[in-house]
Amino acid sequence: MKSTAGNTGGIQKKKMNGYVGFSNYPNQVHRRSVKRGFNFTLMVVGESGIGKSTLINTLFDSKIFPDREEMPPSAEPVKGVDVTSMSADIQENGVKLRLTVVDTPGFGDSINNEDAWQPILENIESRFDAYLAQENRVNRSKISDNRIDAVIYFIKPTGHCLRVIDIEFMKRLHTKVNLIPIIAKADTLTAGELELFKAKILADINYHGIQIFKPVSDEFDDPETVADNREILSKIPFAVIGSEKHVERPDGTPVRGRRYPWGIIEVENEEHNDFIKLRQMLLRSHMEELKDTTDMVLYENYRTQKLLSMGHVQDNNVFREFNPLVQMEEEKRAHDGKMQKMEAEMSGVFQQKVNEKEAKLKQSEEELYARHKEMKSVLEKQRSELEEKKKRAEASARPITPMEQQHPTKGKKKNIFSGF
Amino acid sequence: MTAPEVQDYVGFDTITQQMERKFLKRGFNLNVILVGESGMGKSTLVNSIFSTHLVDSQGRRTAQEVIRKTTEILPVTQTLDENGVRVRLTIIDTPGFGDQCNNEGCWVQVIKYIKDQHAAYLERELKPQRDRIINDTRVHACLYFLNPGSRGLRPLDVEVLKRLTEVTNVIPVIAKSDSMTLDERTLFKRRVKEEMAFHRISVYPYASEDDDDEDRMLNASIRELVPFAVVGSEETIDVDDKPVRGRRHGWGVINIFDESHCDFVHLRNFMLRTHLSDLVEVTAQRHYEQFRTSQLRQIKELRAQQAAAAAAAAGGSGSSQPPVAPLPHQPMTQA
């Protein structure tokens, strides 16, 4: 709050004489939030076997994902990309968290992975749509938020620059979600290789204009937070390992880690990998920011784009003061104008249709007449032919038998028929 | 029929030395193709096996470098000398393989190359005046790089292996196996063997009736190890003042020559110390012969067709002799 010279509507800084108590407001917010509980939706994307389930189970120290079942060789591999979600209610120090993890099995596993990002993008957008629909409801008291708060993208530890599928995926999704790329299976890279690899990845990301989630400090943060943020930023992209199993260190202490013939890599050892940093950023320091960015930036952008594309126009008149009567008059006039226009249009269309139908009827009339004439002429022809035949038959007629005399018409008919 | 006893020393047992001398003079060709996605550790592994920097990694190093759109074939030939034995070693790299979003047909260039080498050899063999020694460019071994961490074979692996095993000796390896614990490796190997059996993919070494018990046992133990879980390294690091070829991590040092760390030693022994001549022989006897048979059969059919067509034409116009079919050594396009 800056104080301005003079009282020209500026905000003045005032000092209080004693303890008032409004500084307790954050605690009230805190209490209410704790009562309500939080939800957090995380999506994991990466090829099969890269460690998605293990990492999630390690992050939350619980078996969110069950062990994957062994499929026989004859089982059909997953075609395309599936999007499945798993929810768990976990609690820590009285704080309830509804954690939803969205898995994407099949991503990058097929021979043809073109458009593998498509189902994932559709899923993210459908969650935005669902939220948008709820916001537009008449009764908005219960809105369930299942928008994706962050996508953890697993990069293979190749040591080279990003693969085509990595770049394509990130380019398509970075404006819709908070993107957190991590280097999976970090235990396969030495410290030197890791440094080079991270630099290559960041170079690729910058080159393609991909925006990833980064912790930023603003002027309100205390120096400790600023330092923490800087440290986190220096490790991005995080190189992590996961492990649900405990192994014993040489001194006997059990730790979560992986045992190799040449040593033990510990999950929670910052010198071995960046798991701690990932957990810190994701859960301990920046969960709120992730949710906030999703709500205030990513969702809003999506909403704006969607509404614009649906034809809504930003109507700034809404913000002007208005006289309700004048407004209604205007509306009536506009409405009348519209009605007139519609009437004119409709009568025009009607007229057009009538003309068309008339023309059509006329045409068919003419056709019928033509046909009638034709048939008549054919009939005439037939009749004249028959007359002729009759004459011919009479000319060569034998003396009339008594039978024919009795039934002259019958005889005639017979002749006609026999003439055929 | 029992072999007759040789009374005096005749001396035909020196044939092995005679062959050796011939070999030393002539040297031999060894052609190995590397098939696997970028970043699997192909270059490092092959450089480790031959303890020489033979090939450079073809992986993309900077963001500005253009991503390859197709599989390229990059053969690099060098002559190595060990104890007077010369080998003309050709390593064929396949950058771009499996690196696209859509990898349909990424194997076509690879299969084509292998078949082209057979075709080139056949052409030279069929010439009326053959070279005394035909330069053998046929691919003797294919190192196929599997992806560590996958459940087993991926759909791409199945498609490619089916085709590769028909034209060359395939040796499946996991090059960056330092991301797998010993249990995970065992599980993966079992899985891969199951899937290969299911898809009827037969990798080298093949069982043969000529094998004696020793060979059979050796081959059986090799087959147990397949796919080889190896780690490659071109660096030498100091461990307790001893030079070790390996990788240094914050939590331990991998010694690639340590059998408890990885199968590198087994792979190298297998490829170079025990089965090297077998690889060359099997290529000639099995894969090349198959190719040759199918090619000659095709020529025969083609000639028969042309003769029939010419005969039909001759019947109508009473004309010329049937045209001679040219050798169809045009590269095969079906893969």
UniProtKB/TrEMBL annotation, chain A:
GO terms for molecular function: GTP binding. Residues 365-420 are annotated as: Disordered. Residues 36-309 form the Septin-type G domain. Residues 409-420 have a biased composition (Basic residues). Pfam families: Septin. PROSITE patterns: G_SEPTIN (PS51719). SUPFAM superfamilies: P-loop containing nucleoside triphosphate hydrolases. GO terms for biological process: cell division. Residues 365-395 have a biased composition (Basic and acidic residues). The keyword GTP-binding applies. Keywords: Cell cycle, Cell division, GTP-binding, Nucleotide-binding. It comes from the Eukaryota. The keyword Cell division applies. Gene3D superfamilies: P-loop containing nucleotide triphosphate hydrolases. InterPro entries: G_SEPTIN_dom, P-loop_NTPase, Septin. GO terms for cellular component: cell cortex; septin cytoskeleton. PANTHER family: SEPTIN (PTHR18884). Belongs to the TRAFAC class TrmE-Era-EngA-EngB-Septin-like GTPase superfamily. Septin GTPase family. This is Cell division control protein 3. It comes from Coemansia guatemalensis. The gene is CDC3_1.
Automatic annotation (TrEMBL), chain B:
InterPro entries: G_SEPTIN_dom, P-loop_NTPase, Septin. Pfam families: Septin. Gene3D superfamilies: P-loop containing nucleotide triphosphate hydrolases. Keywords: Cell cycle, Cell division, GTP-binding, Nucleotide-binding. One of its GO terms (biological process) is septin ring assembly. Residues 308-335 are annotated as: Disordered. GO terms for cellular component: cleavage apparatus septin structure. Residues 26-298 form the Septin-type G domain. GO terms for molecular function: GTP binding. Belongs to the TRAFAC class TrmE-Era-EngA-EngB-Septin-like GTPase superfamily. Septin GTPase family. This is Cell division control protein.
